[in-house]
Prior knowledge:
Elements: E1 4-6, E2 13-16, H1 22-41, H2 44-60, H3 62-73, H4 77-101, E3 105-106, E4 117-124, E5 127-131, H5 139-150, E6 154-158, H6 164-176, E7 184-186, H7 194-199, E8 203-209, H8 212-224, E9 228-232, E10 237-241, H9 247-259, E11 269-275, H10 276-291, H11 311-326, E12 330-333, E13 348-351, E14 368-374, H12 377-384, E15 394-396, H13 400-409, E16 416-417, E17 436-437, H14 442-447, E18 450-457
Parallel strand pairs: 5-6, 5-8, 6-7, 8-9, 10-11, 10-15, 11-14, 13-14, 15-16
Antiparallel strand pairs: 1-2, 3-4, 4-18, 9-17, 12-13
Helix pairs in contact: 2-4, 3-4, 4-5, 9-10
GO molecular function: glutarate-semialdehyde dehydrogenase (NADP+) activity; succinate-semialdehyde dehydrogenase (NADP+) activity
Keywords: NADP, Oxidoreductase
Protein name: Succinate-semialdehyde dehydrogenase/glutarate-semialdehyde dehydrogenase
Amino acid sequence: MAIATVNPTTGSTEMIIEPHSAEEVQDRIAKAAEAARLLRGSTFAQRTQWMLAAADILEDQAEGLGELITVEMGKPIAQSIAEVHKCVKAMRFYAAHAEGFLADAPLADPSSVGASRAWTRYEPLGTVLAVMPWNYPLWQVIRFAAPALMAGNSGLLKHASNVPQAALFLDTLFERAGFPLGSFRALLIGGSEVAAVLADARVKAVTLTGSEPAGRSVASIAADHVKKSVLELGGSDPFIVMPSADVAAAAASAVRARISNNGQSCIAGKRFIVHTKVYDSFAAEFVKLMSELSVGDPLDAATQVGPLATAAGRDELAGLVEDARALGAQVLTGGTIPEGPGFFYAPTVLAGLSEGMRIIQEETFGPVASLYRAADREDALRIANQTTFGLSSAVWTNDAEEEEWFTANLDAGAVFINGMTVSYQELPFGGIKRSGFGRELAADGIREFCNLKTVWKA
């Protein structure tokens, strides 16, 4: 895949970027390793000053960066600008809390281990490689970079090849803010070159957000070299609606969950599992709202759904719908590729799904929703847990006992009750099963790329 900006609204190529040569890659790894040494010796106060300066740069350029994101991957402009501001908030969060998250923790009774004093401390690992996707070109990177840098690590970014302008912006952001040369640099390389970078002894760990095949590959390479890895992979999140729920509110939230980021979000609700008692009323409202969405130019503030980021992604989504349709699924709205340029797909709702359809197990990365009728809560749970994924989930109920039952039994990294899944810097984020392992954000995220060192003193 070429390193290029292909505008998904028009299908036209706007910029082609020359990849880095082998010599340039080696130079960047060397500078990152030296930066890691300098960052390890810096203070939290210094890193806080630099991180706040980087946040200010982002905030000052929010409008322009929002337009860049929209042109590169197609999300509605208001969501692109909101992504920039979300990054700013996370950077300021880690600037404020990193020192506390990584503070030494003394053992309350050191005499129990025969010591006068015993404690644990967190220390940076060194240079960490980040392999990041296109769907949140800034947020996915910043939610790793902010805690990693505040912990005293340096970072190397292998960004998705279709968002090179976002990569180039991030390439200089932290140095512009005062961080040492090489603290966080982009590697403009193809996916086939990741293995060699990860194998380099100067690279100490890796984090990847992306597809399951990419995660398997990176994790296996990291394991071969005994290096830490964190994976955030796909999701096919259940959105469960029970009889006690506010059905109208659930339907409205379901639409937002499904079409946010043009449906290209790992943590979006994708499978809408509705108790039979409220299925008909929910389905009617959900289909009505989905059919009324405005699809068009994402730079137009009135647009609610823009194009898919790539032609391949649009075609893969259409293939899932056609497979389900051919095997008897009902298309309640949408199910078509609009005429004209760009990588658009109509907001779609499918029902009557059955075993054998690919969509039962595979992730729908676009504005396509699957509706399931559940006989009772046990049936709803069975449907929710039947996929190989386990990223997040949502449950709509006003029954306290039901809330606890679903929370305890859903196979997921998170459960959102009476709301849609959203990532917050204050809460840990990650999945189980084939959605990956490890956590980002909150205190857990900054500690992932630290050595937890035990100290014992006689």
